[in-house]
Amino acid sequence: MDGQDDQYVVSFGGSLLQTTNGTVISSVLLGYDNYVDLEYLARKKRLHFHAISNDRIYTANRDIGEYTIYESHLVSLNVSYRTPAEMRGINIVKAMFIDQPEVIDEALKDYIAFKDLENTVTFTRSTPFYFEANAKGISKGSALKKLCDKLEITADNLMAIGDGGNDLSMIKFAGTGVAMGNAISELKDCAQIVTADSDHDGVALAIEKYALN
Length: 213
Prior knowledge:
By secondary structure, the chain is α/β, with parallel strands linked by helices. The protein folds into 2 domains: 104 residues, 2-Layer Sandwich (Hypothetical Protein, Haloacid Dehalogenase-like Hydrolase, Chain: A, domain 2); 58 residues, Rossmann fold (3-Layer(aba) Sandwich), CATH 3.40.50. Helix content is 33%, strand content 23%. It has a 6-stranded mixed sheet with strand order 6-5-4-7-9-8, sandwiched between helices. The mean pLDDT is 95. This is HAD superfamily hydrolase. Pfam families: Hydrolase_3. One of its GO terms (cellular component) is cytosol.
């Protein structure tokens, strides 16, 4: 489906919506001031942190976190060290607090500092070791809403499949929400359907049964 103008991709937690030939339909960035606030909070909470542009991961951590390296391999983006001052002018699509799950759990126990940023930032716990930040109101669900508006269809015509915390918004938005067998319990609770897990062709089974029939 690469290189087509009628196939669509939602990425970076919903901040980027584009066709597979690269035509951007919607791109909502984190502002530089947002980045500075988030990076300062990461230092205060002693969490590893990185920011992501369309083509690179940036971190001000001299001791680059293991999950930053993991994310780099996962999404095929190189990692660069930049001080906060050097980040001015870089288009940031998403930022992430990344660390051992128990370290993030401990940081989130005192949520007041995160709460103070929610006027301009949307937070999502996508995995036990990722706590993500997008621009206010941005999610996979909001991106699907924009796609529906462009295609002039309703959510009833959509099926969404997911397994993590950052998939909750699109599962709730879509007319047919499908949770993978390995999904978090909160997502399974709000989905209409639970398919097989990722090791047993859960996506293919759901598409064949509910989209193609």
